[in-house]
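Slide 14.
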Amino acid sequence: MTLQQRVLEKTTALKQLMKQEGLDGLVITNNIDQFYILDFYFYPAETVLLIYEGGLVCFTRQLYEAPLKKMFPFMQVIGQDKERTAAVVAEAARLGLKRVGFDAEKENYMAGSLFKASGFVETGSHVSLLRQTKDEHEIAVLRDSCRIAYETYEYIKPLLKTGVSEFEVAAEMEKFMRMKGASATSFLTIIAFGENTANPHHETSHRKLKDNEAVLMDFGCIYNGYCSDITRSWWHGDKEPEEYTKIWHIVDKARQSGIAAEKPGVAAQKVDATARGIITDAGYGEYFTHRLGHGVGMEIHEEPCNDQTTTAILKKGNVITVEPGIYLPGKFGVRLEDTTVITDTGADILTRK
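Slide 15: predicted structure.
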């Protein structure tokens, strides 16, 4: 499928959602949502898109006008460096649109106020809803992004030596991912040694690796606009404590059980409960302090999530993490995470070769 065909497919799907809500127009100002639709990256506040039954209008900086017209001959491109919000309101009026929606959750105060004053209506996050289910093209890109992350783990693990700092390890990993084609990291790389592994969101520091202590690394990259996410934990040295070995295997069993529970039609809450039950039954429930997983796509945290309160039902094409953990304060922690895609019959692990 060509880029133009993918754009037309996504805008057609959006128009169907608009029709269900009685909208004859939809304004999109979030740059990640714009990237999802056009596969063209704008910086925040550079562009406003207007989708309506008769077409697609893009108000953007003049420097984008020529390349966009060439890429998308079916899209009206208006080069305008200022007052784009007012311009889209005027265009909607010129087109005779009666009920134009905007995503209230993602809109900034100034633009949202102008839209409301102009008679536009607050809507749900239609693009976010579409983004939850990935198509074949997106899954292929996500698979490549996750493969880069896994290869980074394979590359870095043998290089970890006593005396190296968390920062040094993170820098080497990030360089490796960039050389593999990644444009950036999915989030701030987490490298934790020793007692730092007991903090699920430890901030990578100058702490140096000592003999015989825990290692945890949580990281990912952005490849062609899509994120990856993986966590690995192990013991550095030949004197691994029995308790560390014990909790590592409990967490691994929870990871495997969570992935096995993922299927189309299954409640995401049940997936969380399945993995969480393994840890709770082993006596470590109070030390599993976060949700089991989250959606991954153009952003590192998307819907749906595997957690205890969600009402989401998993669908084919959802890409979601399974990342159970046990964290013993002042001692060490273990988290094992894979990014998975929901298939026709279950879940496929993406964080591998």
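Speaker note: The mean pLDDT is 96.
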